[in-house]
Design brief:
With 390 residues, this protein is of the alpha+beta class. Helix content is 23%, strand content 22%. The protein is built from eight helices and 14 strands. A five-stranded antiparallel sheet has the order 8-7-6-5-9, with no helix packed on it. Strands 13-12-11-10-14 form a five-stranded antiparallel sheet, with helices on one face. It is globular, with a radius of gyration of 34 Å.
Length: 390
């Protein structure tokens, strides 16, 4: 077995806690070399103490001897009084700090000091109890990872979902749920795996096993985009259901509908079908990292394959059929391929985008006489002139 190291550190946001007294902790999603993912909570004072110790361990890289040799990023010291505004504004700083730290030589980025700091502690596994008077307020980072004070206006109430069937976890990063369990969703990944928490448990759950409490439909599902986005398949998949599509690794396709359950509708030529989003990478982007990530977890199951699903809603979730996708897609492609017909406007007005001016009515032009008629008229005129001369 290889050495233990951290592949990536992502800041999810922060929590405002009230026990034993009001304080703030930052939430980090730590991805390890064995493809496991752990959520840990750290105070900023702890992070700053970690930073100071790191500089003592690597004085040259910290610029303590020669400032021009410094590679360890800077981190501002805690303020005398840290409120919510300070906690919000530090998110961007912490994201940049740990991104820079993970890019340093392995003697720093994989040192025991760093690994120990991000190991799961007992406190990381303790979630607020139902009897707690005031529960923590969770503030999540914007999706683009850029934190701005104006981006967060108040505590984000985590969305609550209900499990429609029993799900047994297949790895240490997943979470087991039973039918009727109510979970809070911390992160909705495009892969169709959602990071959830429930009482004293946290982990990834397939989105297909969860339903909103107020409606069977997922309000955040976007509309289809029949223009399509170019993607590349990074793993082969053989269709199991009739409405799915089989593709080999390395094929170029277009995504026309990105659904939150991780099964996207793709187009290959005129054909459409469902395909796991985990096995797709946007065209032009590096695929090595994406291929490495899918080794630890497969595509989530589709809702249509879940047995004994029990919904609390009277009607089922609205879904477009593949016939509808296909018809709309073919219609769009035909319109895109069809050459534009020249309109009644002149070339000049078509080029400049102005509406053509209505032409003024011209006087009627009599038809031109034929050559025989002209010759006949000339002959008659000549005869009359000769007769008058005699």
């Amino acid at each position: 077995m290889g050495d233990t190291f951290i592949r990536h550190i992502a800041l999810l946001g922060f929590e405002k806690r009230f026990v034993p007294s009001q304080h703030y902790v930052y939430m980090f999603l730590v991805k390890w070399q064995d493809l496991s993912e752990k959520v840990v909570y750290r105070k900023f004072t702890e992070i700053y103490e970690f930073h100071k110790m790191l500089k003592e361990m690597f004085p040259i890289e910290a610029g303590e001897i020669h400032s021009e040799n410094r590679v360890i990023p800077h981190l501002p010291a805690p303020r005398w009084f840290d409120g919510q505004r300070a906690a919000e504004s530090r998110q961007g700083t912490l994201t940049e700090y740990f991104n820079a730290l993970m890019g340093l030589p392995v003697k720093i980025s994989r040192c025991p000091h760093l690994l120990d700091f991000f190991k799961v502690r007992p406190d990381d596994l303790k979630l607020p109890t139902d009897s707690q008077v005031k529960k923590p307020e969770t503030y999540l980072m914007p999706k683009d990872g850029k934190s701005n004070i104006t981006d967060i206006t108040g505590p984000i109430v985590l969305q609550t979902y209900r499990a429609i069937a029993d799900y047994e976890k297949s790895s240490g990063t997943e979470m087991t749920v039973a039918t009727g369990d109510v979970v809070d969703v911390v992160e909705k990944s495009e892969s169709g795996w959602w990071f959830c928490q429930m009482k004293t448990k946290r982990g990834w759950v397939p989105a297909s096993y969860l339903e909103p409490l107020d409606s069977p439909d997922e309000a955040e599902d976007p509309d289809p985009n029949y223009e399509g986005e170019p993607y590349i398949t990074i793993k082969a998949y053989t269709a199991v259901e009739e409405d799915e599509v089989s593709l080999s690794e390395g094929e170029a396709i277009e995504v026309i509908h990105k659904l939150l359950d991780g099964w996207w509708v793709v187009r290959k030529g005129d054909a459409t079908g469902y395909f796991p989003s985990m096995y797709l990478q946007k065209a032009g982007e590096e695929i090595t990292q994406a291929q490495r990530q899918i080794r630890g977890r497969g595509a989530p199951p589709r809702r249509s394959t879940i047995r004994n699903a029990q919904s609390i809603h009277q009607r089922s979730r609205k879904r477009l059929s593949q016939d509808t996708y296909r018809r709309n897609s073919v219609r769009f492609l035909q319109q895109r391929r069809r050459p534009a017909r020249p309109g009644p406007q002149s070339a000049e007005s078509a080029d400049n985008g102005r509406s053509p001016q209505r032409a003024k009515p011209q006087p009627a032009v009599p038809p031109r006489p034929s050559a025989d008629l002209i010759l006949h008229r000339c002959t008659e005129s000549t005869k009359r002139k000769l007769a008058s001369a005699v």
